[in-house]
Structure formats: C-alpha cells, structure tokens
Predict the 3D structure of the following.
Amino acid sequence: MAVTEGQAVLVFPYPPDAPFSVGSAMGGNKLIYALSTIAVVVSSSSGSGGTWAGAIEALKSRWVPVYVRDSTGVRNGNAELIARGGRAWADVGALDHIDLVDQTESIAAVPQAAQATLFD
C-alpha cells in the first residue's frame, strides 16, 4: 500500500469512522486547498455548494491560484469566481496541465522545513 511504503500520506481532520457531514467535508476541503499547488474549478453555482465555498475561501485566503473554466455553457458561478480573482482558462478539453502549472511560476517558492515521516 502506498501509505505504508512511504509513497503517499492520508490527511483529514476527522477520524476515518466519523459519519459524513457537510461541515466535515468543508473542513477536509481546506486541507485539500492548503496542500495544493493550484486549484481548478470546472463548474460552480453562484453562492452555493462545496465547490463555490471552497473556491471563495481559497481566493480570500490566497492559499493557491484558483483557475476557473471560462467557456460557453458553464454555470453562473464560474464568471463570478473569475470576477472575484479566479484566473480564467478556456475549456477543459484544451487544458494543458504543463501550461497551467508553468503559469504559477510567479508564485514565490516557500522553503519547506525538513519533517520526519509518520513511520520514523
């Protein structure tokens, strides 16, 4: 398994046996954004849902650049996220991961402190 082989780590603020709740899911989303290099929003309704709430929080907190799909037929939240500071990209079919990551080079690199693994 990837975790025991030191190739992956599982991070979540609640115990694995905790029942699902919207609040728990939102708490987990904070970690996902915080541990990411970029965030990509494909579709979001304005003012509702976990995608909207997470993207708004990431934009306000400036955790990561938030790229938002900007093409015909996307939900109304996408344009509003772009207006609030999300970075527009044309279409999911045209998305090139390398180009998207290259655009984040202007983000200052934060030196990482050495950390022990969970298995040391």
About this structure: The helical segments are 22-34, 50-61, 76-83, 97-102. The beta strands are 39-41, 66-69, 87-89. The CA atoms of residues 29 and 55 lie 10 Å apart.
